[in-house]
Each structure stands twice: as C-alpha cells, then as structure tokens.
Fold each of these.
Amino acid sequence: MTDTQATAHDHAQGHDGGHGHSHGRIDPSILRSRAGLRAVSWSLLVLLVTTVAQVVVFLATGSVALLADLIHNGGDALTAVPVGVAFLLRSRVAEKRAGYFVVATIFVSAAVAAVTAVERLVNPQSIDHLAALALAGAIGFAGNELAAQIRLRAGRRLSSPALIADGNHARVDGFVSLAVVASAVVVALGLPIADPLIGLTITVVILRITLDSWRTVRADRRHDEPSG
C-alpha cells in the first residue's frame, strides 16, 4: 500500500470505521417520512392562515353561505391527518389506505356539490354580501391552491399517491371557493340561475379529479408491506 493509499484508508476509517467521528447514514424511509410530514405540516399551516382570513370576513358579514364554506374547508383539511400519520408510521400500507380515504372524501365533496346545485335549481335562494363572498372565495382559492401545490410537488417527489390525492383534494376545495367567486359575480350581474349551473359544472370537475386520484392510488402496487 502506498503512502497516498494509506492516508486515504486512514481517513476513511476515521469517518466510517469507528476510529474517529462517524457521520452515519440515515435510513431513506426516515428521510421520506420527514419530507412527507414537512409537506403536510406546511400545507396545513397555509390552510390555517386561509381559514383565519375567511373567518375575519365572516365575522364582518355574518354570511351563512360563507360559514358553510368555512365548515366545509375546515372539515376537508382534516384529510391530511391520516396521510401524516401514514408518513409518521413509515407504512406504505397505511399510506395507500389514507389515499383511498382522501379519494372517498373528494367523491363526497362532489356529491354534496351536486345535491346543493340541484336544490338551488329547484328552490332558488338569494345570496347576500356578494363582495364579501367574492373576497372570501378568492382567499379560499389562493390558499387551497398553494396547499395543493405543496402536496402535489412533494407527492411526486416522494412517489406518494396518498399525498398526490390529498393535493388534488386541496385543489378541489380551491375550485369550490372559485365557484363562490363566480356565483357572486353572476348574481351581481343579475343572473342568479347561473349560480347552480356553476355548481353543476364544478361537480363534473370534482368527479374527474376523483377518478384521476383513484387511478393514481390504485396504480401504486409497490411496497405492500410497511417500510418502517
């Protein structure tokens, strides 16, 4: 062994052989878990700030329609909990189940949107506080879209169908908020009949996202056992 080789060998031992300090290696599943939890946490923080902003508008207007949208968004944000738990457990099985749970929640959102739209077609309702509703809807769309981007990017990077599905779910909520803006605009223009029609259009969009999310989760057949 030459002096250069000996020096390199001693240096390697000093780093990895236990004769010096050791950097160690972190299990890739731990790194993946941390990245997933970080994405879920940041997206939830964004949604929390969004909700607080909408609450401020609600307190200023007392709009029942806005309150309903707030409750809807708040409940839907909880879908991040099973996804976060799956990352914490480092379990692909739990992650896939969380993905199916998110897909089911998206489908329920579509059903609720459809029923509400049909009911408004049959029994038209007046909408008040149009400017406030449009503002709250714009805030909801921006917040949900940002949360969707955080989850979708992390989901693709980590190859996590559950996180991708939850990103799609946040995007669905953004579309619902955008529908609130559109409804406020058309009602202000004197076209109240367009409000439920917008609702039906959003329902079709949500159903398409539901199908895409289900296919994404179902297609992931790797790692049928917990990885942690």
Amino acid sequence: MIGLYVHVPYCTVRCSYCDFYLVPGPARDTRAYVDALCGEIAGVEASLRGRRADAVHFGGGTPSLLQPEQVASVLDALRSVFAIQPGAEVALEANPEDIDAARLRGWVAAGVSRLSVGVQSLDDDLLRVMRRPHTAGEAVEAIAAARRSGVSSLGADLILGMPGQTPAGAMSGMARMVDLGVDHLSLYLLEVHSRTLLGKEVALGRRLPMDEESAAALYDEAADLLVSRGFEHYEISNFGRPGHRSRHNSKYWTDQDYLGFGPSAHSYVSGRRWSNAPRLEDYLARGGVGIGRVDDDPARSTRAVEALFAGLRLSEGVDLASLRGRYGADFSPPPPEAVADLVGAGLLESDAGRLRLTRRGRLLSNEVFERLLS
C-alpha cells in the first residue's frame, strides 16, 4: 500500500522556530494552487497509476487554509488516479484559528477522518514568542469543536523546551489536551535552527531555550503521564491511544512507499527517492505539470542503514533478519561490539535479533545512531 502526501505551502505567518519551506502571508488565494495540485496528480506516470493507497496526508504549511470544497477537489483527483481503499486514513493538519463548526462539517464530508491540530502550547506568553496566530483559549475551543465533529481520530502537537517554558505549565497544558479527549499527541523537543527568528534571538542571547537536562526530565514526565492515561508511546515523539497511530507517518518509519505532491514534497517509491523543486511560482505557472525534480538516489546499503534508524524510532524497534531479507547483502548489521556497548549503557535493548531503544535511548537517539554507524 502506498501513502499519498499533499503539501500546502501557505501559512498566515512564519512561526519563530519554523525552518520548513512555506510562503507566509495572509489572504492567499489558494484556488490556483489547488488547480495545480490536481494537474500534478492527473499527470502521474503510468507505472504509478492505480496503486492502492491506505493513507492520504495533507501537510504543510497550513492545509487548514484550504476550503472544504478545495480539499474535496484534491481528494477527487487522487481517487481518479489511485485506488484509495475503504477505511483509508485521510489526515489534515490544522491550525486552531481555522477550525469552526462549518469547516469541520465540510472537511468530514470531503472524507477527512483524522485531524492534527497545531496547538504547540497552552501558554499565551509562549504562543507570542512562537508567533503563533492563536491564543490558548482558541486552541481549547478548536479541540473541543473537533472532538464534537465526525473525525474519527483527533491529535494535537505540542513543543517542549521553549524559552520561558516551565515544566509545570507544560504538564498542565498536556493534561488539558488529554482531558479534552485527544486520541494522539506529538511532543516535539525544540530544535533551534540558525536561519529562524528564534535561532537569531538565541544567537544574540535575547532568549535562552530550556537546558537539555531539564528538557529531558520534562520529556520523561510527559511520557509517564501519557502512558498512565492510556496512550501508547509508539514512536520517539508520538503517543497514541490504541488504534490511533499515524498510518501515513508510519510509512516513513517502516520503509514503505509514499508519493508527494506540491513544491518541496518528497517521494519514495520502489527504492527511488526524489523531491519536487521548492519553487511555488514555477509550480503555479506550469499548473503542476512538468515541474522540476531533485533526484536523491542513495545506494541500497545507505537505504538499509536509513531503514534501520527509522525503524528504531518505533517502540517495537527493528528486526535485523527482516532488514536482511529486504536488502540482502546490501544490509550490514551493526557491529556486535557497538550494540553491546549501547546495551551496557542502557540505551539499547537486544532480544532475539531485534533492537529497541530504551526510554533513555530515545532521548539520545542521535548519539545511538552515530555509535551504531561506527
């Protein structure tokens, strides 16, 4: 089964921490963009037409800037080319300020079954630092409205480690999300990128992110809370109630095929990997047809290593025999001495040929990956 990703590059404002490809600015006319998306979808190469798909994900940017009828148009275009399966997950990322009862009804009628709301924090001071265009109260109202709608799976994103964030405040916001009935929470430890507004403020000493030790302790406390409230800690940053894992994102972590549409969207199909050129003006001018692509064709041995690391992000870890069966001689298992050292350090578990990160290993995953490479 293939996953389908639709990128919507527009945002009302660029958040202070954001390093993604997007086009900020209010009142964007999205009609031409939807037409271009439909043009790109219609022009899919013959070898991919008719592929069965069990997940469609609208990401961005801010997909909730699309009107419900525009979402419906894109889904109709996808259905005309791919065999989207009954019960497929159709997910849409949304900002709180875009959510109201009418839009929710329209998105559900179009086929959206999963909503992921970019809450980020329930602290108004932090939201201002982030340059988020909503308040904590609006986020709570949006989650409550979404819970009353017909979406079968409701999630929210939160950021940990922001400058000025307190553990008590973060935990309070998280508990409020659980009490509101979300099925899924993504907890992202802040990454400061030098090109962003926040990165520049940190470099100038105007803001100081939470120190690593405090952020790690907060992550542990958050994980304990969510597990105690019935959530499964199924991936480093993701927690879901049973049956509410992100089907689309799981394709990234389990080395499955996915196809992306829109400028900067990435694809991985039958071992080939590429991305669309991140040039919105060119994309619109061409109506999504004949757009530039950036090929990324790593060796099979490189893809095997990437599959190992992606799989380690999941709670069940990676079965080395399965990877060997998929990649054959191109897969080199991690050196036994490196595995033994990481097990001894309490960062990795090894059981009958399956490797799993421990809770502490999840916090230090980059270090674990580097040591396995050695």
Amino acid sequence: MPLEKKHDATRPHSLILHGIKITHPDRVISETGQITKGELAQYYAVTAPLLLPQIARHPLSLLRCPAGVDRQCFYQRSPGKGLGKDVHPFEFHSKGKTYEYLYIENEAGLMELIQMGAVEIHPWGARIDAIDTPDRMIFDLDPGPDVPFESVKIAAEDLRQRLKQRKLDPMLKCTGGKGLHVTVVLPEKQRWPEVKAFARSIADEMAAAAPEAYIATMSKAKRVGKIFVDYLRNDYTATAIADYCVRARPGAPVAVPLQWSELKKLKSASQFSMSDVLGRLKRNRRGAVVARASANSQTHFKEG
C-alpha cells in the first residue's frame, strides 16, 4: 500500500483501513515533509503484521498528537473517552497500587488508536495475561547532548558482546530519537525483579569498566559527555517505543529494528522515514531484516 503524498478535492475525506474509518486523512501532522494523518494511518496499516506481535495484549502508553507533532502532544495510558470499541481496558494491582492501562488485540484496534491521534505506541515488556513475567529485556543507550553518535554505536557493540558472553542473543534497534535500544527476547519465566537486577548488573559492569564513557544512574548532572545505560525500562509500568513505531518528531522518523551488520553504516538513530521503512520491507518481503525471534530465548540469567 503506497503512501499517498497528495490529496485533492476529488478524493474521499476519509480512509477505510482494516475496517476502521480514518477521518481527515489530509490533515498535516508534520510540517517537515508535509506528512498527513492519512499517510500515517496507511503506514501503520501496512506494518501492522510486524508491529502487532510486540504490542497486542500488552499494556500500552500512547503519545497522542491530535493537532500534529508540531503542536501539543500528550501521553495516555488509560482507555478514557473517545477511543474505539477495539481498545480495551486493563487493570492490575501491584504493591498496594492500582494501575489502569489500555490494550489492543488486532489491526482494528491499532487503526482506532491512529484515528484518535496516536502517533507513538509504547508497550510494556509483558502481556496482560503474564504481567509479572516480561517477554523482553531492554537496554536504552541514551547519550548526553554532547556525545557523538559514533560513541553510541560503540556502546551498542560493547553491550552486545557482554550479553553474548552470557549466551544471550541481543537485537538492535534505532529508536527514531537520539539513542539505540538493545533488546533480548525472554521466555516469560523470569519475574520483573530478577530481570531488572540482571539488567542493572550489566549496566553497572559497563560503567565500572569505562566510567569516562558510561553511567548507570539517571542523574543528568553526571551524564555530561557520557551514555546512560538505561536498564530502568525493565520494571513494572515502564515502557519503550515499539519496533516500527513512528515518533512524534518533525519528519516523523521511525524506530527501526536492524541487523547488527547495519550498525557500522548507521548515521543516526532517526535516519529512517516511513517511506524508507516501506522500501526496506519491499526489498525483503520475507522479513529477514526484521526477524525478531531469539534462538536462545530459553536461556536463564546468571549474573557475573
């Protein structure tokens, strides 16, 4: 399904995608690139088979931009009002607190999110029916403002080698922002505290080995010239941008999973547009560049 760059008076004022009506498809949601709501919806309709395995039946946080990414956006995690019938509530209790999130199950739910102005989709690392056992572990390599991207690439390879030494099979993603994610698929056997403790041990190890390059704490004052090895996404209520999700930034860059062989030539974490991604998929219809299954997904953690 190609992205339609222009709309005229003879064209319909709505799209029907996966059975859901997308209104105002001509509305420009990014002045950079003159990207429209219709283009965004078409992109998500095409990439739904790749996106849904990560987000379906996972609690979600959305970044909604009803007037476009150049204006005010807001986060939403609970169903609230104005969402379609294919967007469902999910409530759970932890440590004496009650949390309410939303989730979807299929393409119709995804299209309803886009219809209501969602641009970014951030899933939990666990499914609603296995909320205590994450299905992925995520490291976010978040550089300080003065850190060159080449240093982030070196950090990703460093992290990869440390995980491989522990018989894990890490995967790479550019976030559509300024950093990189390194992810490990999990077998949903380890609980959140165990996963978080393991991730922290890796982050602390990197910071100890190269304190001039890495930091494992959130303190912005200490992050000048360093990369924050963010392990904190491996916990209750923490989310991370999903593969193939568009970012609510000028030009609508995309978070794209990559082969490790692509890291060397990667110029930035936000270099891929929606059209770029569709071109990649067209060149590789079998999805080899986006294979996400880990051959070692049954590996249990061993610290040290």
